[in-house]
Amino acid sequence: MTDWNAMSDEEFRAEIRSFLQQNYPDHLRYPSRRVRWHEVREWYLMQAERGWTAPGWPAEYGGVGLSPSKQLIFIEEQERYGVARAPDQGVVMVGPLLIRYGTEEQKKHYLPKILSWENIWVQGYSEPNSGSDLASLRTEAVDAGDHWVVNGQKTWTTLAQDGTHIFLLARTDPKAERKQQGISFLLVDLNTPGITIRPIRNIAGHEEFCEVFFDNVKVPKNDLVGEPNQGWTMAKALLGFERLFLGSPKQSQNALGRLDAFATARGLHDDPAFADQFARLELDVADLAEAYEAFADRVRAGEALGADVSWLKVWATETFDRIAALSVQAAGAEGGISGGLAAGDESVDLLSLYFGALPTTIYGGSNEIQRNILAKQVLRLPE
Amino acid sequence: MTDRQEERRMLADSVAGFARQYDGIARARGLSDGAGLDPEAWAAMADLGLMGILVPEEAGGLGLGIPEMAVVAEELGRNCAPEPLVAQAAAQAALAQVDSKPAKECLAGTADGSTRLALAWQEKADQLNPAVITSRADAVDGGVRLSGSKCLALPADADLFLVSALDNGVPALFLVPRDAAGLELQSQRQVDGAETASLNLNGVQLPAEACLCTGDAALQALNTGISAGLTLASAELLGLADRLYTLTTDYLATRKQFGVPISSFQVLRHRAVNLYIQRELMRAALNQAVRAFEQGATGEALQRAASRAKARAGDAAQLIARESVQLHGAIGFTEEADVGVHLRRVLALSAWLGNAGWHRRRYRTLSRQAA
Fold first, then answer.
1. Closest of B75, B74, B60, B44 to residue B107, by C-alpha
2. A68 with A58: CB under 8 angstroms?
3. What is the mean pLDDT of residues A161-176?
4. Is the CB of residue B205 less than 8 Å from the CB of residue B182?
5. What is d(CA B240, CA B73) in angstroms, rounded to the nearest whole number?
6. Helix or strand (DSSP H, E) at A122
7. Which end of chain A is more exposed for a tag (fewer CB within 10 A), N or C?
């Protein structure tokens, strides 16, 4: 077997890059919306057969066991090539959770099915009244002897309509002193009676996320992960260096490239006002990329990321948002036309950029929450 | 930590040590009040070796580079030091490109603090391309005669000016002493109290050896000096911005209104975070310019990196400075508060060698050419 970690970074990067160039389907590059499972299934099943579903998992659990620095390269190359994201919550969240806190039985049962994509996991965190204040969640799991009974509602569950399983944060001790205590991690089969999934149509017209309702849903006792009432602590412990990717410059670089193509074809760079706005964004993206690399260097050196990584998310997403806003301005009187706009030989869909950018300042912890975190933990401002 | 990092840390420590002994803000106020620069602080800086960082060892300097000088500039900015070390360093960086005896002698004088040197290349405030030269050098008996004009040379009280002129249509660099016959100096006061000079070259008579270099070598030396100046000004601006950030977040944490520290108000917390983000961006933009020097970049690649640093530093430092005044409230608008002293330095430095808007345009032009 190839020892990927023994390769030099350059060699490994070249390997991933050429593999994608030779194998990844062209029509799935840089999708303008979150793709559905049936669209990418074939590609990801092929990766599963090669044993590449979970590059970051230890080899003993069926992963590739890549070091953080190699994982970073792997993800950077996927982003660079515009590879469509899989419904990867099983790989990113459930797997690491079980590897760290699961029983042998849970690992044996669930991990192989994540690797083979037989199980598609979706996330059950947010609720209608618990968004930024997630710890106030009210979906409850009541001990009924040999099983839990779950009642409540989750929302913003990405592509739940494609999922087979959901991992839930549910309240198991309503009397706990602090709201963060008394929350447990449950693994739930979406086919269990009492579960209703209702897709939510977003403002771009796509059904990207869903509401998930639980009405007296019976969950086996052994599908609770770790200790009861420790769900919050476990969820926090799972926040690893993946937070870095929320601050990746790739979305902005890609958006700026598309705006550039449009502006060049339409002669907009000759307009000094546009040129200055464009140059400003170009520098915003360039400095973002420089800062991102400094954080990535820390990951490569094996350091844990601190709360300061939050500023990268704020800057990355707000930069993306500014590019998207300028794009629609650049389209002028055609700014309201949906679909691609003619730009020389190409067609550039500027509205999809616009709608793509809007949620980025909300998801992954809204930018207001990120600023709260920075003010408290990094600036250490007294409250 | 690598040896170079260790060396830079020690350099930063030694400037910080200097700053504890000599209060930069007091000196900056002195300069604003018309008291001029403090000769004792200047001599102490020379003793520390800060003026010889870019000067080769054989000329009595430390023979270090822009990365080390950037560490010094940042630390001086953090202490609001008003001395024109960065302006002189730009001239030193240009002169260090010239391999000649007069150049070495001049550099040696700058290193020990006995000679002050200024770049005098700009001819019009809005013409920032050093290749556009209208001043002329004409051969005369036993030497050359310079005619034309220069502006915005910093510091105005330099003993020697590094002047560009066309010799038969070819760019050339000259060392011009301030007492040269035919040189008329006028100074203009900057907002921080420092003075820049306009030079009227009314047939300035110089010996032939005053010409240091000609042609591409002259333009390259100028470009290197200007890129160094831009990078170092960005470092000094980062230091100033960092101090403003600290002053402001400290103020938010201690100032009480409505019975609570005003840092408890979310709108102020978020604005403080925005300042933090701007400061981090300044550091990122500066790091890439410093790296360009480390990697030996030249020509347009170097100019592009330097423009990028200055574009970010100019805008971000001004934003941080204005916000610092606002977040201090009325006291922030007084001379008593330290923010204003920093703000004036920020204004002067962000305009020097071209403001953010100009450097964004140059960055964009160079990027499109490179693509």
1. B60
2. no
3. 96
4. yes
5. 10
6. strand A121-124
7. N
Total domains in the fold of chain A: 3
Q: Are residues B21 and B111 in the same domain?
A: yes
The answer to whether A375 contacts B272, with C-beta atoms less than 8 Å apart, is yes
Q: What is the pLDDT of residues A102-134, one digit of tens each?
A: 999 999 999 999 999 999 999 999 999 999 899
> From the list B261, B276, B284, which residue is nearest A287 (CB)?
B284
Provide the 10 A C-beta neighbour count for residue A193: 8
* Residue B5's pLDDT band (cuts 50, 70, 90): confident
Nearest-10 crossing angle of helices A250-266, A68-81: 20
Q: Identify the domain containing residue A218 by its residue range.
A: 121-231
Give the residue from chain A lying closest to B255, CA to CA.
A382
Chain A residues lying within 8 Å of B364, measured CB to CB: 275, 278-279, 282
Closest CA to B239 of B49, B69, B92, B110: B69
Asked if B158 contacts B178 with a C-beta cutoff of 8 angstroms, the reply is: yes
B-chain residues near A282 (CB < 8 A) = 363-364, 367
Q: Is A104 a catalytic residue?
A: no
**Which of B65, B90, B115 is the endpoint of a domain?**
B115
Provide the domain limits for residue B180. 119-216
Q: Cα(A97)–Cα(A230) distance, rounded to whole angstroms?
A: 12
Residue B360 touches partner A, C-beta closer than 8 Å: yes
Instruction: Please check whether residues A225 and A243 belong to one and the same domain.
Output: no
Residue written as token pair 């929302």: A155
| Cβ(A379)–Cβ(B273) below 8 Å | yes
Q: pLDDT tens digits, residue range B89-138?
A: 999 999 999 988 999 999 999 999 999 999 999 999 989 999 999 999 99
Which pLDDT tens digit goes with each residue over A275-298?
A: 999 999 999 999 999 999 999 999
Can you read off the two tokens belonging to residue A347?
Answer: 């067609």
E strand or H helix at A326, and its extent? helix A310-330
Q: Which residues of A touch B274 (CB under 8 A)?
A: 371
